[in-house]
From TrEMBL:
<dbReference type="Pfam" id="PF01522">
    <property type="entry name" value="Polysacc_deac_1"/>
</dbReference>
<dbReference type="InterPro" id="IPR011330">
    <property type="entry name" value="Glyco_hydro/deAcase_b/a-brl"/>
</dbReference>
<keyword id="KW-0378">Hydrolase</keyword>
<dbReference type="GO" id="GO:0016787">
    <property type="term" value="F:hydrolase activity"/>
</dbReference>
<feature type="domain" description="NodB homology">
    <location>
        <begin position="87"/>
        <end position="360"/>
    </location>
</feature>
<keyword id="KW-0732">Signal</keyword>
<keyword id="KW-0449">Lipoprotein</keyword>
<dbReference type="InterPro" id="IPR051398">
    <property type="entry name" value="Polysacch_Deacetylase"/>
</dbReference>
<dbReference type="InterPro" id="IPR002509">
    <property type="entry name" value="NODB_dom"/>
</dbReference>
<protein>
    <submittedName>
        <fullName>Biofilm PGA synthesis lipoprotein PgaB</fullName>
        <ecNumber>3.5.1.-</ecNumber>
    </submittedName>
</protein>
<feature type="domain" description="Ig-like">
    <location>
        <begin position="265"/>
        <end position="334"/>
    </location>
</feature>
<dbReference type="InterPro" id="IPR007110">
    <property type="entry name" value="Ig-like_dom"/>
</dbReference>
<feature type="signal peptide">
    <location>
        <begin position="1"/>
        <end position="27"/>
    </location>
</feature>
């Protein structure tokens, strides 16, 4: 940037043009966030990658021109409109499992890659065998790990307790976030005000609460973080089981944010009288092929896209099948104009049990 400024001040227009083109070609306003849980061959496949698979992921990033940056740097850059290197990636781990220290940390340290551990503090405080200790978290913090907030108990925060008023429910969730943040600061010295929703579950009231507290929130829906993203529910690509296979990994880490200006509904919650919810998105202009935009539902595969205007700036999509109890997604993607990368957006749905409880 200093070189560009000097260039323009000296009126060397041809050189300036070349520098500007080069700078723009190698900068971006978005980043891919990856979400891992266990890194082990002996843990549930649905939330695990093997150490060999993680090594393949890290080697691919290292060999193909990616920049792995700290979560704080990337969040601040995107929010403040500062450019990032093209193909920027952030690595995160949820739940503070011991396998992160045993199997992921050595690989990350060897690469010099920063990473984040979102900690649910109760299992750590109680010394549960499968979880990290505070000593291990502090050690990783000295080698580039950001230690961030994942609640006390990893409960379903959208669920109200029996006989709990709305205000009591809000206060309980506020206290859980604040107590977790205070405990992390006490034990590690870090307090970055980044919060990963347990199970990726949030509703508008909780997101508003988080924003009022000055926190940035992260979900578990796929997609890319960009300037139009909702900073109370930023997307991350879950990496586990088949979703961590190399073919899909290559597509995801090279993806770009579908520029969604507005979405309806602005909520994940599925009601009993609307079990086939429609999603309407309004798009900003972008370097993607609108005619090739496709959407998919987790319970139905590809689902129809209906454009609502001739300019193809608004469309709606809906599953033909009722969503099951639990978490579901609609994913919408479109290839870039050169066909080399995909623009991506995901919306998570949440349907509770009849008694208002959620499933893990």
């Amino acid at each position: 940037m200093k070189q560009l400024l000097s260039c323009f001040l000296s009126f060397k227009t041809a050189l300036c043009s070349l520098l500007l083109i080069s700078t723009m070609a190698n900068s971006a306003d978005s980043a891919v966030f990856l979400q891992y849980h266990h890194v082990s061959e002996d843990t549930p496949r649905s939330t695990s990658v093997t150490p060999d698979r993680l090594k393949q992921h890290l080697d691919y990033l290292d060999d193909n021109g990616f920049t792995v940056k700290s979560i704080v740097d990337v969040v601040n850059s995107v929010r403040d409109g500062r450019p990032l290197p093209d193909k920027t990636v952030v690595i995160t781990f949820d739940d503070a499992y011991k396998s992160i220290y045993e199997n992921a940390f050595p690989l990350l340290k060897e690469k010099g890659y920063p990473f984040t551990v979102f900690v649910a503090i109760e299992p750590v405080d109680k010394g549960y065998h499968q979880f990290l200790s505070w000593d291990q978290l502090r050690e990783m913090g000295k080698h580039g790990a950001t230690i961030a907030n994942h609640s006390i108990t990893h409960s379903h925060m959208v669920v109200k307790h029996p006989d709990e008023t709305r205000q009591q429910w809000v206060n309980r969730n506020r206290d859980e976030i604040l107590k977790t943040e205070a405990r992390i600061k006490e034990k590690t010295g870090q307090s970055v005000k980044l919060f990963a929703w347990p199970f990726g579950e949030a509703n508008p009231e909780l997101r508003q609460l988080l924003a009022s507290m000055g926190y940035v929130g992260f979900g578990q829906q796929s997609g890319v973080v960009g300037p139009l993203s909702d900073f109370t529910l930023l997307p991350r690509y879950p990496m586990a089981a088949d979703y961590a296979e190399m073919r899909g990994f290559r597509t995801k880490v090279n993806s770009l944010p579908l520029p969604v200006k507005k979405q309806l509904p602005d909520s994940a919650m599925v009601t009993d009288n609307n079990l086939k919810p429609s999603l309407t998105l309004e798009l900003a202009d972008g370097d993607f092929q609108k005619n090739q935009l496709k959407c998919y539902a987790s319970n139905a595969g590809e689902i129809p896209v209906k454009w609502l205007d001739d300019e193809k700036t608004r469309f709606t999509t809906v599953t033909p099948n009722s969503l099951s109890v639990g978490r579901s997604r609609y994913n919408c993607t479109a290839p870039s104009m050169d066909g080399r990368r995909y623009y991506w957006y995901s919306h998570q749905w949440l349907r509770l049990n009849e008694d208002g409880t959620a499933i893990d």
